[in-house]
């Protein structure tokens, strides 16, 4: 199966790099590109990509709003959206996921991580960059209280966790 990819990125150099890298993959076809939100909305509807690589900071409707519109309930065949941004903030992560993004990676991720991120989303799975996952786990762990006190671990016993 060839993964149809739409690139939505306002910086020409980054957009060109994505097109070059993703287009060189034997299982991917870059079907279009957009440098602003309005073009991204139109291209997504017209081209029916499998995965949209989305920057958050697009002129016009931003990447979050574009994601919300193309991944909303009721869309016949919504694409999977992989948000790729330079900004690792809880606000951006939460807003992207609420809008319907299936993945969130940082622009400083290794190229193979970006390529595999597209493949992961195309398989119907979700993905968060390790730095985001670490932050979310840390925040979750400090907010949740254990339901009960766990007994001390005794190596070799059935109750041992290690």
**Sheet having the most strands:** 6 strands, parallel
Q: Tally the helices: what do you get?
A: 6
Low-confidence stretches: none
Query: Which CATH class?
Result: Alpha Beta
Describe, in plain words, how this protein is organized in 3D:
By secondary structure, this protein is of the alpha/beta class. The protein starts with a strand and ends in a 19-residue tail after the last helix. The chain has one domain (3-128): 3-Layer(aba) Sandwich (Rossmann fold), CATH 3.40.50. Strand 5, helix 5 (111-122) and strand 6 (127-128) form a beta-alpha-beta unit. Strands 2-1-3-4-5-6 form a six-stranded parallel beta sheet, sandwiched between helices. The mean pLDDT is 88. The longest helix has 14 residues, at 130-143. The chain contains six helices and six strands. It has helices spanning 12-23, 37-47, 63-70, 90-99, 111-122, 130-143, and strands spanning 3-8, 28-34, 51-54, 80-85, 103-106, 127-128. Helix 2 runs parallel beside helix 3 and helix 3 (63-70) runs parallel beside helix 4 (90-99).
Index terms:
globular; six-stranded parallel sheet; Rossmann fold; 162 residues
Topology:
Blueprint: E1 3-8, H1 12-23, E2 28-34, H2 37-47, E3 51-54, H3 63-70, E4 80-85, H4 90-99, E5 103-106, H5 111-122, E6 127-128, H6 130-143
Parallel strand pairs: 1-2, 1-3, 3-4, 4-5, 5-6
Helix pairs in contact: 2-3, 3-4
Task: Write a brief structural summary.
The protein is α/β, with parallel strands linked by helices. Helix content is 41%, strand content 18%.
């Amino acid at each position: 199966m060839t993964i149809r990819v739409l690139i939505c990125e306002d910086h020409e150099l980054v957009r060109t790099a994505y097109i070059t890298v993703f287009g060189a993959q034997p299982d991917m076809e870059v079907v279009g590109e957009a440098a602003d939100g309005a073009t991204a909305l139109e291209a997504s509807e017209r081209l029916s990509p499998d995965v949209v690589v989305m920057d958050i900071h697009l002129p016009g409707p931003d990447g979050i709003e574009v994601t919300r519109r193309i991944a909303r309930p009721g869309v016949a065949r919504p694409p999977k959206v992989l948000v790729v941004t330079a900004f690792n903030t809880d606000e951006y992560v939460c807003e992207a996921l609420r809008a319907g993004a299936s993945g969130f990676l940082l622009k400083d991720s290794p190229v193979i991580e970006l390529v595999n991120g597209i493949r992961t989303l195309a398989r119907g799975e979700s993905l968060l960059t390790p730095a985001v996952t670490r932050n979310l786990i840390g925040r979750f762990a400090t907010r949740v209280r254990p339901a009960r006190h766990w007994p001390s671990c005794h190596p070799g016993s059935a109750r041992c966790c290690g």
